[in-house]
Request: fold
Amino acid sequence: MSKKIYVTGLGMISAIGINIEETLQSVTQLKSGIGKLNYIESRHKERVSVGEVKFSNIDLKNIASLSYPIRFTRTALLGIIAAKEAIRSANITDINSFKTGIISATSVGGMAVAENHYLDSLNIEKKGDFLNYINTLDCSDSTERIADSLGIKEFLSTISTACSSSANAIMLGARLIKHGILERVVVGGTDSLSRFTINGFLTLKILDETQCRPFDATRNGLNLGEGAGFIVLESEKAVKGKMILAQLTGYANSNDAYHQTSSSPNGEGAFIAMKKSLEMSGLRISSIDYINAHGTGTKLNDLSEGIAIERLFGNAIPPISSTKSFTGHTLAAAGGIEAVLSILAIQNNFIYPNLFFENAMPELHFKPETQLVNTKEINHVLSNSFGFGGNTSSLIFSRN
Reply:
């Protein structure tokens, strides 16, 4: 059994870049990826602002170096690109050199394709290419496509717990390593934009038609995004002689079950998740150098999370920001993308700015960072991912 969990590889694609290098360029240039829809046909095209990956599905298939005649959803393509980068980053040339698994999270699955062919599928006599996409609606399809592209066969699992999905995938991977079931796990998540999610969030009336402003008094909702983020977790045995990017030192999940979509007013679930992850890590509150907040920009989430942070940290609140002002809210992929960003913060010793923040929330005592802060050393980052239904998860990444 491995007592420690190491991170050896990172991969990410989002509205601010198709890889880690482009992502860092966008961050250092304070460049947000939020804009108007280009690749999805929607009657709300001019109304919503989203964090869209700036490539068509054909472009993504070429970027992923896929040539075999299989139909891929946008969700799967995004996941393959990020997962392949994570494997390259971890310098893994033989995927079967250790017992390796993959745990991928998604909430949309193949909905972006299925919604285009729904009426066709109701006609049992109709034939067409849409028949090749029927099985891709299942959330596990993207996991299987990613696993196939990497050559992983030992263990496959798919998690869908709304916006905490990727964080929970990372936790499950860590547990499998700790219990000796696997030695290496590719963990994270992928989600693509679709009319289904855009229309759903419009119905909830929590989309900002301009730029989201997490933790701002004038915040008016979130910007949906798409992308994928994966990290490679390895055991003490598998990591020997390899470059280590970080350790996963703490993690916890809770569920306050307050409401189907609303956060609890006192942030109970978020408070428990953060507190338990700190207890697992053995760190003091003062050891956390930066909080990568869930920070969606909605009225309820930011207040609930802010209250939970103040409950736990009191007067010793570390620097805080939400990177969703760069990428948009990528739903099930958010925890994976923000895990990558948290580890990059440790590697580069910087704290991300909370873009577009201007006005402090009167209910809270802290303000998020508004500039890219280069600091002496970032040793421990707390990353929050909170989902519908009160499913709340927190991860702590630490310098090795």
